[in-house]
Amino acid sequence: MPDLARVSSPPVSEPVVIELRGVRAGYDGRTVIDNVDLTVRRGEFVALVGANGAGKSTLLKVIVGLLRPYEGSVSVLGSAPGTSARRLAYLPQAETVHWDYPLRVEDVVLMGRVAHAGPGRGPSSVDRDAARSALGRVQADDLMQRPIQALSGGQRQRILLARTLASDPELLLLDEPATGVDPATEEQLMSLLGDLASHGRTVLVSTHDLASVMAHFPRVLAMNGGIVADGDASILRDDAILRRTYGGHRPGAPQHIADEHHA
Amino acid sequence: MPDLLEPLQYAFVQRALLAAVLVALVCASVGVFVVLRGLAFLGDAIAHAAFPGVVIAFLVKINIVIGGSIAAVASALAIGAVARRSGLKEDTAIGVVFSGMFAIGIVLFSSIRTYTGDLLGILFGDVLGVSADQLMVAAITAAVVLVALWIIWRQLVFVSFDPIGAAAAGLSTVRYDTLLLGLIGLAIAVSVQIVGVVLVVAMLVTPAATARLLAQDLRALVVGALLVAVLSSVAGIWLSYYINAASGGTIVLVATTLFGLVWTGRTIARSRVAAA
């Protein structure tokens, strides 16, 4: 039975956006996450932390509808996962994307609008405006016409984030958006995502950076084969929870990192 | 230049040129995805798998583009299905399906030795033997491929570039991959008469690969691939007329030469930039 002693109470007046009950999921018959119960309400800003293989990506894929769970029930935006694709945006891990393609940044950001357009339609002026403003929000306006092969890791993450923003989603699911990003950019990204949440978007982010989690996220899911703990960022100061989350490979002392982060 | 225009007075040369340009347009456009997604082996396999369809069409005296299309599209879809459902790697599925199909063609081909002269054209291309009927069927097929590609272009780019992100955005990757396989099958069927089963893959791969050496964006890639393909086809037919060689081989040789020139040019340009 997971320790849910410190569950932070979500704003109960807001509608439920994600509801998972008794979910077991994984790949090729192998279970990666089990016994997952989760309720996320509109406007919540949630971090998923845990070691590699803890099931962060698996949980996100179940919510997006890319992975069908073996057991349990899942409801996303009031319907079955995968049926409201236009209302959510998912940022996959950057290495699953073919960065060697001859595309310009604008082409990639406009992909965020493809599902809205339907076959046979080129990008409209509304689509181009949405792409331009999304690039502005990740401070990458100047990259618009740049070939994507020439981008740095941090720029790539910003472009993918701009693509998710361009679709104007109600629910954002981001798998390690901070990978390969310098600390200043990560800070900007997390502030931007927190800002979206405070404007009524629901945002789930998987990350390895506990200091950034402590600085930005009101709610944290600690994962290790399921949800080990669910609460505010103070759960990351709890030795028992950290041990259950990371086992032997506990990352540094997050208190100190967090203090430096605030300094 | 009266000498260069001389071949144009023959109707069979006019038909050949039209057919070759059609093939160039279709193969170069579909070839953009073949090159981006690394499907050269699949393309070669589908071309070989079209062979029995062409032989059967020849035997029952229907248009060989129709026979080739049916066999090519069926084997393209079979490869996709075997790869998805058997748990085998895609190149293994390709190896099994295409060699099986090609073997059917070989068995049929060898049992009707009297017609080998005509059927050799299917293996190596015989653009100068294109009939008006064949040209008509090729034109209709080419139009279908180009229109379909235009309609699903953005979706196909998204699904190829980022399959997981595209699936999350609600695009069915299986549906678009299947459509792409079908279009590759049709493009190959149109091209078999012109360049032959053995060299069709070059029409799919070489023009787009040449453009890929220089292209910074998709528009440049598509335009470049079309230019290389059309130029190779027209120049190749001219050349084959004058040196009396198989049209497929000369077209592909021109394309390969263009690839070599562009690659050499790029290498020299880059070493100058590096030295400067």
Can you walk through the features of this model?
The complex is a heterodimer of chains A (263) and B (276). Chain A is built from nine helices and nine strands. Chain A has helices at residues 56-64, 105-110, 114-117, 125-137, 153-166, 183-198, 210-216, 239-246, 254-262, and strands at residues 16-27, 30-41, 45-49, 71-76, 88-91, 171-175, 202-206, 219-223, 227-231. In chain A, strand 8 (219-223) and strand 9 (227-231) form a beta hairpin. The radius of gyration of chain A is 18 Å and the shape is globular. Helices cover 84% and strands 0% of the residues of chain B. Chain B has helices at 2-5, 11-36, 40-59, 64-86, 90-111, 116-124, 132-161, 163-168, 173-195, 200-212, 218-243, 247-275. In chain B, helix 4 runs antiparallel to helix 9. Chain B starts with a helix and ends with a helix. The mean pLDDT of chain B is 87.
Which secondary structure elements does this structure contain, and how are they paired or packed?
The complex is a heterodimer of chains A (about 260) and B (about 280).
Chain A: E1 16-27, E2 30-41, E3 45-49, H1 56-64, E4 71-76, E5 88-91, H2 105-110, H3 114-117, H4 125-137, H5 153-166, E6 171-175, H6 183-198, E7 202-206, H7 210-216, E8 219-223, E9 227-231, H8 239-246, H9 254-262
Parallel strand pairs in A: 3-7, 3-8, 5-6, 6-7
Antiparallel strand pairs in A: 1-2, 1-4, 8-9
Chain B: H1 2-5, H2 11-36, H3 40-59, H4 64-86, H5 90-111, H6 116-124, H7 132-161, H8 163-168, H9 173-195, H10 200-212, H11 218-243, H12 247-275
Helix pairs in contact in B: 2-7, 2-9, 2-10, 2-11, 3-4, 3-5, 3-9, 3-10, 4-5, 4-9, 6-9, 7-9, 9-10, 10-11, 10-12, 11-12
List low-confidence stretches of chain A. 1-9, 252-263
Number of strands of chain A: 9
Structural class of chain A: alpha/beta
**Tally of helical runs of chain B:** 12
How far apart are the termini of chain B?
43 Å
CATH class of the domain at 11-198 in chain B: Mainly Alpha
Which homologous superfamily in CATH is the superfamily of the domain at 11-198 in chain B? ABC transporter involved in vitamin B12 uptake, BtuC
Global mean pLDDT of chain A: 85
Helix content of chain B: over 70%
Strand tally of chain B is 0
What percentage of residues of chain A falls in helices of 4 or more residues? 25-40%
Largest sheet entry of chain B? none
Q: Low-confidence spans of chain B: pLDDT under 50, at least 5 residues?
A: none
Reading the helices and strands of chain A in chain order gives: EEEHEEHHHHEHEHEEHH
How large is the count of helical segments of chain A? 9
Shape of chain B: globular
Beta-strand content of chain A: 15-25%
Q: Work out the radius of gyration of chain B.
A: 19 Å
Gap between N and C termini of chain A, in Å? 38 Å
Mean pLDDT rating of chain B? 87
